[in-house]
Amino acid sequence: MKLRLLSDKVRQMAQKFPVIVVTGPRQSGKTTLCKEVFAGYRYVSLENPDTRQFAQEDPRGFLSEYNGKVILDEVQNAPELFSYLQQIVDDSKQNGQFILTGSQNFQLIERITQTLAGRVYISHLLPFSQKELKVNKNSNLEKCIFTGGYPRIYDQGIHPTDFFPSYIQTYMERDVRSVINIRNIGQFSSFLKLCAGRIGQLFNASSIGNELGLDNKTIESWLSLLEASFVAYRLRPWHVNFNKRVVKTPKLYFYDTGVACNLLGLQNESQLNSHYAKGALFENYVINQQLKHQYNNGEFASNYFWRDSTGNEIDLLIDRGQDVSITEIKSSKTVNTDYFKTLNKFEKWAENHTVQKNLVYGGNEAQKRTRLGVIPWYNVEL
C-alpha cells in the first residue's frame, strides 16, 4: 500500500475542525486513506442500501447510533444527515468527530455550504501522483501517461485496458444516471470521447453540440457533470489582461490521463509516440501533477493559462499574487530555444509582477538557465 501524501494534512486538520471532508473521483483511494488515518473510527458506507435507508428515513436515530468518531463513506447518498450533523458538532464542540467522503462534488459541496460552513475542512484526493508512485528518470513517460494514477491498477496489477472500460461504464451507468436523466447513454459516451479528443483545446460547446446534434445548454450541463464528478475540468484563462485581445475561453483537461487514453482508443503506451494527441496528453499530465501537488499540501489551486489572439500562449500560469509562475510544456525529449520565446515576451509584458519562468519537457535532465528553470517531466512541482 502506497503512502498518500494527503494523509498528514487531513490528520492535522482533524485536530482543528469537527468535520473533515475528503472528496475525489470514485476509486481514487478516499476510503483507504480515511481508514488508515483514522484507524480507531467506526466505518459506515452509505452505498449499502439498508444503511442508506436508515440514514434517510431516521437521520437523528442514525447519527445517535454512530455519534462521533465515525467515517461516513459516500455521504452525498444521504443528504438528510447534514442538518443534524450541524446540531451535533455545535453542541459537542469537539474536533475530528466526523470524517465524510464523497465522489459527487456538486451534491456534497452544496450541502456543506448550506449547513456546515465554518465547521468543516474540505480536501481533494486525486489518483496517485508521480511522487506517490516514486516516478523517476528511469520511468517510462509514455507508460505513466497511458496508465494514469488509479490505485487499483497498481495495487492489483490490472492492465489499463482491463480497468478503464469497466470504470467508465460504471461511471456512466451509476453517477450519470443518478444525477441527470440522460435517455441516450450512448450519446453521452460519444460526448466523453469528443472531450478526450479536445484535451488542451479551448472548450467550444457549439462545436461538440453540432457533432452530437445537441444544444449548447445540454453540452454545458454535461460538462458540469464531468467536473463535479472529477472526470474533467476547465482551466480558466488568467484574469489579468495586458491588452483587449486576450482569450477568455477556458481549456479542457481530464483529471486522469489514463481515462483519456482509453477514451481515445489507445491499447498500449507505445501507440502514444505516433498519436496526434501526445503533446496534449503530456500537457494534461504535467498540469495534473501540479494540481495534485497543491491538493496534497492543502493549497488553493490558483492555476490558469494565458493566450492572446495572435497565438502567444502560456500553458500553465500559477497566480501567487504579485508573483506568477509561468510554464511552457513540451513533450519533446530535447530542449529547443524557441520554447522560451513566449516566456520571455510574457515577462516583459508583466512588468508589475515578479515572474518565475519554467520549461517542463519530456527529457530527463534538469537545467538551470539564466532566470529560467528547465524541469524534466518526472519532477513537476512548480
Description:
It is a single chain. The protein has 382 residues and is an alpha/beta fold. The protein has two domains: 7-124, 3-Layer(aba) Sandwich (Rossmann fold), CATH 3.40.50.300; 132-382, no CATH class. The chain has 15 helices and 13 strands. The chain has helices at residues 7-13, 30-37, 49-57, 59-65, 81-92, 105-115, 141-147, 151-155, 160-179, 185-196, 205-212, 216-228, 257-263, 278-296, 341-349, and strands at 19-23, 42-45, 70-73, 98-102, 120-124, 232-235, 251-254, 303-307, 313-320, 323-330, 354-361, 367-369, 372-376. The strands form three sheets. It has a six-stranded mixed beta sheet, sandwiched between helices. Strands 2-3-4-1-5 form a five-stranded parallel beta sheet, with helices on both faces. It has a two-stranded antiparallel ribbon with strand order 6-7. Helix 7 (141-147) packs across helix 13 (257-263) and helix 11 packs across helix 12 (216-228). The radius of gyration is 22 Å and the shape is globular. 41% of the residues are buried.
